[in-house]
Amino acid sequence: MKRPAILLSLILALPMGASTDIGTISFPTSTPSKEAQAHFQRGATILHSFGWKQAIQAFQEAQAADPDFAMAYWGEALCYNHPLLPERDRDTPQEVLQKLGPTLEARLAKAPTMREKGFLRAVDALFFGEGDIKARRVAYMEAMRDLHEAMPDDDEVAAFYALSLISAGGAAGKEGEPERVLAGSIGLRLLAENANHPGAAHYTIHAFDDPTHAILALPAARKFAGIAPGVSHARHMPSHIFIQLGMWQQVSDSNQSAYEAAVDLYEPGDSAGDMVHALDWGQYGDLQLGDYERARQWIERMEAIAKKVDGPERIAMTLPTVKARYVLETGQWRTTPVTDSAPAAELFASGISAIQLGDLALARAATRALGAKDESETGSYFKKPLEIMKLQLAGAVAIADGDTEAGFEKLTAAAAIAQAMPLPRGAPNPIKPAHELLGEALLQAGRPADAVVAFEESLTRMRNRPRSLLGLARANTAIGEHEAAQALYAQLMSIWKDRDLPELSEVRRFLASN
Questions:
Q1: What is the DSSP string of 419-438?
Q2: Dist. CA 166–CA 175, nearest whole Å
Q3: What is the 3-state secondary structure (H, E, C) of 215-259?
Q4: Rounded CA gap, 236 and 221, in Å?
Protein backbone atom coordinates (compact mmCIF):
# COMPACT_ATOMS: atom_id res chain seq x y z
CA MET A 1 0.00 0.00 0.00
CA LYS A 2 1.32 3.42 -0.91
CA ARG A 3 2.12 5.62 2.06
CA PRO A 4 0.13 8.85 2.37
CA ALA A 5 2.48 11.74 1.77
CA ILE A 6 1.68 13.40 5.08
CA LEU A 7 3.06 10.44 7.00
CA LEU A 8 6.51 10.66 5.47
CA SER A 9 7.31 13.55 7.79
CA LEU A 10 6.21 11.57 10.85
CA ILE A 11 8.73 8.77 10.70
CA LEU A 12 12.42 8.21 10.15
CA ALA A 13 13.25 5.70 7.46
CA LEU A 14 10.60 3.09 8.27
CA PRO A 15 10.85 -0.11 6.20
CA MET A 16 8.42 -0.33 3.34
CA GLY A 17 5.79 -2.96 2.73
CA ALA A 18 4.34 -4.61 5.83
CA SER A 19 3.61 -8.29 5.25
CA THR A 20 0.08 -9.19 4.34
CA ASP A 21 0.27 -12.44 6.34
CA ILE A 22 -2.71 -12.69 8.67
CA GLY A 23 -2.66 -16.25 9.96
CA THR A 24 -4.57 -19.38 9.04
CA ILE A 25 -8.04 -20.54 10.09
CA SER A 26 -10.69 -22.84 8.68
CA PHE A 27 -14.14 -21.25 8.83
CA PRO A 28 -16.51 -22.96 6.37
CA THR A 29 -19.93 -21.39 5.82
CA SER A 30 -23.07 -22.02 3.81
CA THR A 31 -22.52 -19.43 1.08
CA PRO A 32 -22.53 -20.90 -2.44
CA SER A 33 -20.24 -18.09 -3.62
CA LYS A 34 -16.54 -18.98 -3.61
CA GLU A 35 -15.73 -15.29 -3.89
CA ALA A 36 -17.87 -14.42 -0.87
CA GLN A 37 -16.34 -17.26 1.14
CA ALA A 38 -12.79 -16.11 0.31
CA HIS A 39 -13.54 -12.55 1.44
CA PHE A 40 -15.31 -13.82 4.56
CA GLN A 41 -12.46 -16.13 5.51
CA ARG A 42 -10.00 -13.24 5.20
CA GLY A 43 -12.24 -10.99 7.28
CA ALA A 44 -12.72 -13.57 10.01
CA THR A 45 -8.98 -14.25 10.15
CA ILE A 46 -8.18 -10.55 10.53
CA LEU A 47 -11.02 -10.11 13.04
CA HIS A 48 -9.16 -12.50 15.35
CA SER A 49 -6.33 -9.94 15.46
CA PHE A 50 -8.66 -6.93 15.93
CA GLY A 51 -7.71 -5.50 12.56
CA TRP A 52 -11.04 -3.68 12.39
CA LYS A 53 -10.59 -1.61 9.25
CA GLN A 54 -9.16 -4.48 7.20
CA ALA A 55 -11.84 -6.87 8.43
CA ILE A 56 -14.71 -4.48 7.66
CA GLN A 57 -13.51 -4.16 4.09
CA ALA A 58 -13.32 -7.93 3.67
CA PHE A 59 -16.78 -8.53 5.15
CA GLN A 60 -18.33 -5.84 2.98
CA GLU A 61 -16.73 -7.43 -0.09
CA ALA A 62 -18.28 -10.74 0.98
CA GLN A 63 -21.69 -9.04 1.26
CA ALA A 64 -21.30 -7.58 -2.23
CA ALA A 65 -20.54 -11.02 -3.62
CA ASP A 66 -23.50 -12.62 -1.79
CA PRO A 67 -26.02 -10.08 -0.40
CA ASP A 68 -27.84 -12.77 1.62
CA PHE A 69 -24.69 -14.15 3.22
CA ALA A 70 -25.64 -13.99 6.93
CA MET A 71 -22.16 -14.56 8.33
CA ALA A 72 -20.71 -11.62 6.41
CA TYR A 73 -23.04 -9.30 8.32
CA TRP A 74 -22.28 -11.11 11.59
CA GLY A 75 -18.57 -10.50 11.06
CA GLU A 76 -18.90 -6.83 10.17
CA ALA A 77 -21.13 -6.16 13.18
CA LEU A 78 -18.33 -7.34 15.50
CA CYS A 79 -15.84 -4.86 14.03
CA TYR A 80 -17.18 -1.63 15.52
CA ASN A 81 -16.43 -2.19 19.20
CA HIS A 82 -13.37 -3.44 21.01
CA PRO A 83 -14.68 -6.39 23.06
CA LEU A 84 -12.43 -5.56 26.03
CA LEU A 85 -13.09 -1.82 26.25
CA PRO A 86 -16.23 0.21 26.99
CA GLU A 87 -18.80 0.12 24.20
CA ARG A 88 -18.51 3.10 21.88
CA ASP A 89 -20.94 2.31 19.04
CA ARG A 90 -24.05 0.21 19.36
CA ASP A 91 -25.93 1.82 16.47
CA THR A 92 -23.66 0.80 13.60
CA PRO A 93 -23.66 -2.94 14.44
CA GLN A 94 -27.46 -2.81 14.65
CA GLU A 95 -27.63 -1.10 11.27
CA VAL A 96 -25.32 -3.71 9.73
CA LEU A 97 -27.41 -6.60 11.03
CA GLN A 98 -30.65 -4.92 9.95
CA LYS A 99 -29.32 -4.79 6.39
CA LEU A 100 -29.48 -8.59 6.49
CA GLY A 101 -33.01 -8.57 7.94
CA PRO A 102 -35.18 -6.22 10.02
CA THR A 103 -35.74 -8.74 12.82
CA LEU A 104 -33.85 -11.63 14.38
CA GLU A 105 -36.33 -14.04 12.81
CA ALA A 106 -35.72 -12.57 9.36
CA ARG A 107 -31.98 -12.82 9.87
CA LEU A 108 -32.15 -16.39 11.15
CA ALA A 109 -34.13 -17.34 8.05
CA LYS A 110 -31.05 -16.49 5.96
CA ALA A 111 -28.76 -18.71 8.08
CA PRO A 112 -29.23 -22.29 6.82
CA THR A 113 -27.26 -24.14 9.52
CA MET A 114 -27.60 -24.51 13.27
CA ARG A 115 -24.05 -23.21 13.63
CA GLU A 116 -24.72 -19.98 11.75
CA LYS A 117 -28.01 -19.46 13.58
CA GLY A 118 -26.08 -19.82 16.84
CA PHE A 119 -23.59 -17.14 15.82
CA LEU A 120 -26.44 -14.80 14.85
CA ARG A 121 -28.35 -15.36 18.11
CA ALA A 122 -25.19 -14.54 20.07
CA VAL A 123 -24.45 -11.31 18.23
CA ASP A 124 -28.13 -10.34 18.51
CA ALA A 125 -27.88 -10.66 22.31
CA LEU A 126 -24.78 -8.46 22.23
CA PHE A 127 -26.24 -5.60 20.20
CA PHE A 128 -30.03 -5.87 20.57
CA GLY A 129 -30.27 -7.42 24.05
CA GLU A 130 -31.57 -5.84 27.25
CA GLY A 131 -29.42 -4.07 29.82
CA ASP A 132 -26.09 -2.31 29.79
CA ILE A 133 -23.00 -3.45 27.94
CA LYS A 134 -21.87 -5.70 30.79
CA ALA A 135 -25.21 -7.51 30.87
CA ARG A 136 -25.23 -7.89 27.10
CA ARG A 137 -21.68 -9.23 27.05
CA VAL A 138 -22.69 -11.84 29.61
CA ALA A 139 -25.70 -12.76 27.44
CA TYR A 140 -23.42 -13.00 24.40
CA MET A 141 -21.03 -15.23 26.33
CA GLU A 142 -23.88 -17.50 27.44
CA ALA A 143 -25.10 -17.83 23.85
CA MET A 144 -21.58 -18.68 22.69
CA ARG A 145 -21.24 -21.19 25.53
CA ASP A 146 -24.42 -22.93 24.37
CA LEU A 147 -23.07 -23.09 20.83
CA HIS A 148 -19.70 -24.37 22.04
CA GLU A 149 -21.34 -27.08 24.13
CA ALA A 150 -23.38 -28.13 21.10
CA MET A 151 -20.29 -28.10 18.83
CA PRO A 152 -17.27 -28.75 21.08
CA ASP A 153 -14.99 -29.74 18.19
CA ASP A 154 -15.57 -26.58 16.16
CA ASP A 155 -12.42 -24.47 16.44
CA GLU A 156 -14.01 -21.18 15.37
CA VAL A 157 -16.89 -21.56 17.80
CA ALA A 158 -14.32 -22.31 20.50
CA ALA A 159 -12.19 -19.29 19.60
CA PHE A 160 -15.06 -16.81 19.68
CA TYR A 161 -16.36 -18.42 22.87
CA ALA A 162 -12.93 -17.86 24.47
CA LEU A 163 -13.03 -14.18 23.52
CA SER A 164 -16.57 -13.85 24.88
CA LEU A 165 -15.39 -15.25 28.23
CA ILE A 166 -12.69 -12.58 28.48
CA SER A 167 -15.11 -9.86 27.37
CA ALA A 168 -17.73 -10.87 29.94
CA GLY A 169 -15.25 -11.60 32.72
CA GLY A 170 -13.59 -8.21 32.75
CA ALA A 171 -10.02 -7.07 33.30
CA ALA A 172 -7.29 -9.01 35.07
CA GLY A 173 -7.84 -9.59 38.76
CA LYS A 174 -9.99 -11.75 41.02
CA GLU A 175 -13.19 -10.67 39.29
CA GLY A 176 -13.43 -12.60 36.05
CA GLU A 177 -10.43 -14.84 36.75
CA PRO A 178 -12.29 -18.16 36.24
CA GLU A 179 -13.57 -16.96 32.87
CA ARG A 180 -10.15 -15.77 31.79
CA VAL A 181 -8.41 -18.98 32.86
CA LEU A 182 -10.98 -21.04 30.94
CA ALA A 183 -10.51 -18.79 27.91
CA GLY A 184 -6.75 -19.20 28.16
CA SER A 185 -7.03 -22.97 28.32
CA ILE A 186 -9.13 -22.93 25.14
CA GLY A 187 -6.62 -20.66 23.44
CA LEU A 188 -3.69 -22.90 24.40
CA ARG A 189 -5.51 -25.97 23.06
CA LEU A 190 -6.29 -24.27 19.77
CA LEU A 191 -2.72 -23.04 19.42
CA ALA A 192 -1.40 -26.56 19.99
CA GLU A 193 -3.66 -27.80 17.18
CA ASN A 194 -2.99 -24.89 14.81
CA ALA A 195 0.21 -22.98 15.50
CA ASN A 196 -0.82 -20.35 12.93
CA HIS A 197 -4.25 -19.51 14.41
CA PRO A 198 -4.27 -15.76 15.23
CA GLY A 199 -7.19 -15.96 17.63
CA ALA A 200 -5.61 -18.78 19.61
CA ALA A 201 -2.46 -16.74 20.26
CA HIS A 202 -4.32 -13.44 20.72
CA TYR A 203 -6.90 -14.66 23.22
CA THR A 204 -4.31 -16.61 25.20
CA ILE A 205 -2.40 -13.35 25.66
CA HIS A 206 -5.50 -11.44 26.77
CA ALA A 207 -6.59 -14.26 29.08
CA PHE A 208 -3.26 -14.33 30.94
CA ASP A 209 -2.54 -10.59 30.85
CA ASP A 210 -1.60 -10.16 34.51
CA PRO A 211 1.60 -10.58 36.54
CA THR A 212 0.54 -13.96 37.97
CA HIS A 213 -0.44 -15.76 34.78
CA ALA A 214 1.65 -13.97 32.15
CA ILE A 215 4.32 -16.65 31.97
CA LEU A 216 1.69 -19.08 30.63
CA ALA A 217 1.20 -16.86 27.58
CA LEU A 218 4.87 -16.19 26.81
CA PRO A 219 5.02 -18.85 24.04
CA ALA A 220 1.88 -17.33 22.47
CA ALA A 221 3.38 -13.85 22.76
CA ARG A 222 6.53 -14.95 20.97
CA LYS A 223 4.44 -16.43 18.14
CA PHE A 224 1.66 -13.91 17.57
CA ALA A 225 3.56 -11.19 15.71
CA GLY A 226 4.88 -13.82 13.31
CA ILE A 227 1.42 -15.28 12.77
CA ALA A 228 -0.24 -12.05 11.61
CA PRO A 229 2.41 -9.44 10.80
CA GLY A 230 0.01 -7.77 8.38
CA VAL A 231 -2.09 -6.49 11.30
CA SER A 232 -0.66 -3.76 13.54
CA HIS A 233 -2.47 -4.98 16.64
CA ALA A 234 -0.95 -8.44 16.23
CA ARG A 235 2.52 -6.91 16.34
CA HIS A 236 1.58 -4.90 19.46
CA MET A 237 -0.14 -7.63 21.49
CA PRO A 238 2.98 -9.60 22.51
CA SER A 239 4.06 -6.55 24.50
CA HIS A 240 1.13 -7.18 26.88
CA ILE A 241 3.02 -10.23 28.12
CA PHE A 242 6.49 -8.75 27.74
CA ILE A 243 5.48 -5.79 29.91
CA GLN A 244 4.04 -8.08 32.61
CA LEU A 245 7.34 -9.95 32.74
CA GLY A 246 9.52 -6.83 32.65
CA MET A 247 11.03 -7.70 29.25
CA TRP A 248 11.66 -4.07 28.36
CA GLN A 249 13.63 -4.45 25.13
CA GLN A 250 10.91 -6.70 23.73
CA VAL A 251 8.28 -4.14 24.75
CA SER A 252 10.12 -1.46 22.78
CA ASP A 253 10.77 -3.67 19.74
CA SER A 254 7.22 -5.02 19.62
CA ASN A 255 5.69 -1.56 19.56
CA GLN A 256 8.20 -0.19 17.05
CA SER A 257 7.06 -2.99 14.74
CA ALA A 258 3.38 -2.29 15.48
CA TYR A 259 3.88 1.40 14.77
CA GLU A 260 5.49 0.65 11.42
CA ALA A 261 2.58 -1.61 10.45
CA ALA A 262 0.06 1.03 11.49
CA VAL A 263 1.86 3.64 9.38
CA ASP A 264 1.82 1.32 6.37
CA LEU A 265 -1.93 0.73 6.72
CA TYR A 266 -2.92 4.34 7.39
CA GLU A 267 -5.00 6.26 4.85
CA PRO A 268 -6.31 9.84 5.20
CA GLY A 269 -9.48 9.80 7.27
CA ASP A 270 -8.50 6.76 9.33
CA SER A 271 -8.20 6.84 13.09
CA ALA A 272 -4.62 7.11 14.30
CA GLY A 273 -5.41 4.82 17.23
CA ASP A 274 -3.07 1.96 16.35
CA MET A 275 -0.16 4.35 15.83
CA VAL A 276 -0.84 6.17 19.09
CA HIS A 277 -1.24 2.98 21.11
CA ALA A 278 2.08 1.61 19.87
CA LEU A 279 3.84 4.91 20.58
CA ASP A 280 2.41 4.98 24.11
CA TRP A 281 3.60 1.48 25.03
CA GLY A 282 6.88 1.73 23.15
CA GLN A 283 7.83 4.86 25.04
CA TYR A 284 7.22 3.13 28.37
CA GLY A 285 9.53 0.28 27.39
CA ASP A 286 12.36 2.62 26.47
CA LEU A 287 11.92 4.63 29.67
CA GLN A 288 12.45 1.46 31.69
CA LEU A 289 15.57 0.72 29.66
CA GLY A 290 16.89 4.18 30.53
CA ASP A 291 16.96 5.13 26.84
CA TYR A 292 15.61 8.62 27.40
CA GLU A 293 16.61 9.93 23.97
CA ARG A 294 14.53 7.28 22.24
CA ALA A 295 11.69 7.81 24.74
CA ARG A 296 11.66 11.44 23.66
CA GLN A 297 11.43 10.39 19.99
CA TRP A 298 8.17 8.53 20.69
CA ILE A 299 6.72 11.81 22.00
CA GLU A 300 7.91 13.72 18.94
CA ARG A 301 6.25 11.20 16.66
CA MET A 302 2.99 11.55 18.56
CA GLU A 303 3.19 15.34 18.43
CA ALA A 304 3.60 15.15 14.64
CA ILE A 305 0.59 12.85 14.36
CA ALA A 306 -1.50 15.21 16.49
CA LYS A 307 -0.79 18.00 14.00
CA LYS A 308 -1.26 16.13 10.75
CA VAL A 309 -3.37 12.99 11.09
CA ASP A 310 -7.11 12.58 11.61
CA GLY A 311 -8.40 10.93 14.76
CA PRO A 312 -7.09 13.27 17.49
CA GLU A 313 -9.48 11.95 20.16
CA ARG A 314 -7.07 9.30 21.45
CA ILE A 315 -4.05 11.55 21.02
CA ALA A 316 -5.72 14.25 23.12
CA MET A 317 -5.66 11.92 26.14
CA THR A 318 -2.44 10.03 25.41
CA LEU A 319 -0.04 12.85 24.51
CA PRO A 320 -0.23 14.60 27.93
CA THR A 321 0.23 11.18 29.55
CA VAL A 322 3.42 10.29 27.69
CA LYS A 323 4.85 13.76 28.34
CA ALA A 324 4.07 13.53 32.05
CA ARG A 325 5.41 9.99 32.21
CA TYR A 326 8.69 11.15 30.67
CA VAL A 327 9.13 13.76 33.43
CA LEU A 328 8.34 11.33 36.24
CA GLU A 329 10.42 8.42 34.93
CA THR A 330 13.50 10.46 34.04
CA GLY A 331 13.48 12.86 36.99
CA GLN A 332 14.01 15.71 34.55
CA TRP A 333 11.72 17.96 36.57
CA ARG A 334 9.68 20.46 34.59
CA THR A 335 6.82 22.68 35.64
CA THR A 336 4.09 24.11 33.44
CA PRO A 337 1.57 26.89 34.10
CA VAL A 338 -1.39 25.75 36.19
CA THR A 339 -4.67 26.31 34.36
CA ASP A 340 -8.15 24.86 34.67
CA SER A 341 -7.83 23.38 31.19
CA ALA A 342 -4.50 21.63 31.83
CA PRO A 343 -4.83 17.82 31.58
CA ALA A 344 -4.74 15.83 34.81
CA ALA A 345 -1.48 14.06 33.94
CA GLU A 346 0.22 17.38 33.21
CA LEU A 347 -0.93 18.88 36.50
CA PHE A 348 0.29 15.85 38.41
CA ALA A 349 3.74 15.84 36.80
CA SER A 350 4.06 19.60 37.20
CA GLY A 351 3.05 19.38 40.87
CA ILE A 352 5.59 16.65 41.64
CA SER A 353 8.23 18.62 39.72
CA ALA A 354 7.43 21.76 41.70
CA ILE A 355 7.98 19.89 44.97
CA GLN A 356 11.34 18.62 43.75
CA LEU A 357 12.30 22.14 42.62
CA GLY A 358 11.19 23.73 45.89
CA ASP A 359 8.28 25.71 44.45
CA LEU A 360 5.58 24.75 46.94
CA ALA A 361 3.26 27.57 45.86
CA LEU A 362 3.07 26.07 42.38
CA ALA A 363 2.74 22.58 43.84
CA ARG A 364 -0.26 23.70 45.93
CA ALA A 365 -1.84 25.37 42.90
CA ALA A 366 -1.41 22.18 40.87
CA THR A 367 -2.97 20.19 43.73
CA ARG A 368 -6.03 22.45 43.79
CA ALA A 369 -6.45 22.31 40.01
CA LEU A 370 -6.05 18.53 39.96
CA GLY A 371 -8.53 18.21 42.81
CA ALA A 372 -11.14 20.01 40.70
CA LYS A 373 -10.87 17.46 37.89
CA ASP A 374 -13.53 14.79 37.50
CA GLU A 375 -14.13 11.79 35.28
CA SER A 376 -15.86 13.93 32.64
CA GLU A 377 -12.36 14.74 31.37
CA THR A 378 -10.75 11.32 31.64
CA GLY A 379 -13.73 8.98 31.27
CA SER A 380 -15.08 6.52 33.83
CA TYR A 381 -12.32 4.02 32.97
CA PHE A 382 -9.81 6.43 34.59
CA LYS A 383 -11.95 7.44 37.57
CA LYS A 384 -9.94 5.57 40.22
CA PRO A 385 -6.52 6.43 38.73
CA LEU A 386 -7.57 10.09 38.86
CA GLU A 387 -8.61 9.67 42.49
CA ILE A 388 -5.22 8.09 43.24
CA MET A 389 -3.31 10.95 41.57
CA LYS A 390 -5.22 13.50 43.62
CA LEU A 391 -4.28 11.72 46.85
CA GLN A 392 -0.69 11.21 45.74
CA LEU A 393 -0.07 14.86 44.91
CA ALA A 394 -1.92 16.14 47.96
CA GLY A 395 0.05 13.72 50.15
CA ALA A 396 3.38 14.70 48.64
CA VAL A 397 2.60 18.40 49.11
CA ALA A 398 1.56 17.82 52.72
CA ILE A 399 4.84 16.05 53.48
CA ALA A 400 6.80 18.84 51.79
CA ASP A 401 4.85 21.34 53.94
CA GLY A 402 5.86 19.50 57.09
CA ASP A 403 2.52 17.78 57.79
CA THR A 404 4.04 14.30 57.58
CA GLU A 405 1.20 12.44 59.26
CA ALA A 406 -1.47 13.81 56.92
CA GLY A 407 0.80 13.27 53.93
CA PHE A 408 1.39 9.60 54.65
CA GLU A 409 -2.29 9.12 55.37
CA LYS A 410 -3.06 10.28 51.83
CA LEU A 411 -0.27 8.27 50.19
CA THR A 412 -1.37 5.15 52.07
CA ALA A 413 -4.97 5.74 50.99
CA ALA A 414 -3.81 6.03 47.37
CA ALA A 415 -1.96 2.72 47.65
CA ALA A 416 -5.04 1.07 49.16
CA ILE A 417 -7.19 2.15 46.21
CA ALA A 418 -4.57 0.82 43.80
CA GLN A 419 -4.43 -2.45 45.71
CA ALA A 420 -8.18 -2.93 45.26
CA MET A 421 -8.06 -2.22 41.52
CA PRO A 422 -7.60 -4.93 38.88
CA LEU A 423 -4.01 -5.93 38.32
CA PRO A 424 -2.29 -3.51 35.94
CA ARG A 425 -2.12 -4.10 32.19
CA GLY A 426 0.45 -2.11 30.31
CA ALA A 427 2.08 1.02 31.61
CA PRO A 428 1.13 2.13 35.15
CA ASN A 429 -2.24 3.78 35.50
CA PRO A 430 -1.93 6.24 37.20
CA ILE A 431 1.40 7.20 35.72
CA LYS A 432 3.27 6.98 39.04
CA PRO A 433 2.65 3.63 40.77
CA ALA A 434 1.04 4.29 44.13
CA HIS A 435 3.14 1.81 46.12
CA GLU A 436 6.34 3.09 44.51
CA LEU A 437 5.64 6.71 45.46
CA LEU A 438 4.72 5.61 48.98
CA GLY A 439 7.98 3.65 49.22
CA GLU A 440 10.04 6.63 48.06
CA ALA A 441 8.39 8.88 50.63
CA LEU A 442 8.92 6.33 53.41
CA LEU A 443 12.56 5.95 52.47
CA GLN A 444 13.08 9.72 52.47
CA ALA A 445 11.37 9.93 55.87
CA GLY A 446 13.85 7.47 57.36
CA ARG A 447 11.48 4.48 57.44
CA PRO A 448 13.35 1.97 55.25
CA ALA A 449 11.73 -1.16 56.72
CA ASP A 450 8.28 0.16 55.79
CA ALA A 451 9.64 1.22 52.41
CA VAL A 452 10.75 -2.36 51.72
CA VAL A 453 7.15 -3.52 52.09
CA ALA A 454 5.86 -0.83 49.73
CA PHE A 455 8.49 -1.46 47.05
CA GLU A 456 8.00 -5.22 47.21
CA GLU A 457 4.28 -4.75 46.64
CA SER A 458 5.01 -2.44 43.72
CA LEU A 459 7.22 -5.10 42.13
CA THR A 460 4.59 -7.77 42.70
CA ARG A 461 2.23 -5.71 40.57
CA MET A 462 4.86 -4.57 38.01
CA ARG A 463 7.81 -6.90 37.68
CA ASN A 464 11.31 -5.68 36.97
CA ARG A 465 10.34 -2.01 37.12
CA PRO A 466 13.65 -0.14 37.62
CA ARG A 467 12.38 2.70 39.84
CA SER A 468 10.90 0.17 42.28
CA LEU A 469 14.02 -2.00 42.07
CA LEU A 470 16.17 1.02 42.87
CA GLY A 471 14.00 2.02 45.81
CA LEU A 472 14.00 -1.51 47.18
CA ALA A 473 17.79 -1.76 46.82
CA ARG A 474 18.25 1.50 48.73
CA ALA A 475 15.80 0.42 51.44
CA ASN A 476 17.52 -2.95 51.88
CA THR A 477 20.87 -1.22 52.11
CA ALA A 478 19.52 1.08 54.82
CA ILE A 479 18.38 -1.87 56.97
CA GLY A 480 21.60 -3.81 56.46
CA GLU A 481 20.28 -6.39 54.00
CA HIS A 482 23.30 -6.06 51.73
CA GLU A 483 22.92 -9.43 50.00
CA ALA A 484 19.38 -8.59 48.91
CA ALA A 485 20.52 -5.11 47.85
CA GLN A 486 23.37 -6.56 45.81
CA ALA A 487 20.97 -8.80 43.84
CA LEU A 488 18.71 -5.83 43.15
CA TYR A 489 21.57 -3.56 42.04
CA ALA A 490 22.81 -6.36 39.75
CA GLN A 491 19.33 -6.61 38.28
CA LEU A 492 19.37 -2.87 37.61
CA MET A 493 22.77 -3.15 35.96
CA SER A 494 21.41 -5.77 33.57
CA ILE A 495 18.51 -3.48 32.60
CA TRP A 496 20.34 -0.17 32.29
CA LYS A 497 23.69 -1.60 31.11
CA ASP A 498 25.84 1.29 29.87
CA ARG A 499 23.25 4.06 29.89
CA ASP A 500 24.36 7.53 30.90
CA LEU A 501 22.22 7.70 34.04
CA PRO A 502 23.24 9.27 37.36
CA GLU A 503 21.64 6.33 39.19
CA LEU A 504 23.94 3.93 37.38
CA SER A 505 26.92 5.45 39.18
CA GLU A 506 25.26 4.47 42.44
CA VAL A 507 24.69 0.95 41.13
CA ARG A 508 28.34 0.55 40.08
CA ARG A 509 29.66 1.93 43.39
CA PHE A 510 27.60 -0.51 45.41
CA LEU A 511 28.52 -3.53 43.29
CA ALA A 512 32.21 -2.57 43.34
CA SER A 513 32.23 -2.26 47.13
CA ASN A 514 30.39 -5.50 47.74
A1: HHSPPP-SS-SSSS-HHHHH
A2: 11
A3: HHHHHHHHHHHHHCCCCHHHHHCHHHHHHHCCCHHHHHHHHHHHH
A4: 10
Crossing angle for the helix pair 198-207 and 177-193, to the nearest 10 degrees: 150
How far, in whole angstroms, is CA 426 from its chain's centroid? 5
Closest to 275 in 3D by CA, of 237, 315, 247: 315
Cβ–Cβ contacts within 10 Å for residue 497, how many? 11
Tell which CATH architecture fits domain 18-244.
Alpha Horseshoe (1.25)
According to the model, what pLDDT value does residue 447 have? 98
Question: How far is Cα 67 from Cα 80, in angstroms, rounded to an integer?
Answer: 20
**Cβ atoms 435, 461 nearer than 8 A:** yes
Put simply, whether the predicted model's pTM sits higher than 0.70 gets the answer yes
Hey, how many other C-beta atoms are within 10 angstroms of the C-beta on 233?
23
The residue extents of the domains of the chain are 1-10+245-332, 18-244
Q: Which one-letter amino acid corresponds to residue 180?
A: R
Lowest-pLDDT range, 233-237, 267-271, 428-432? 267-271
Task: Return d(Cα 57, Cα 40) in angstroms, integer.
Answer: 10
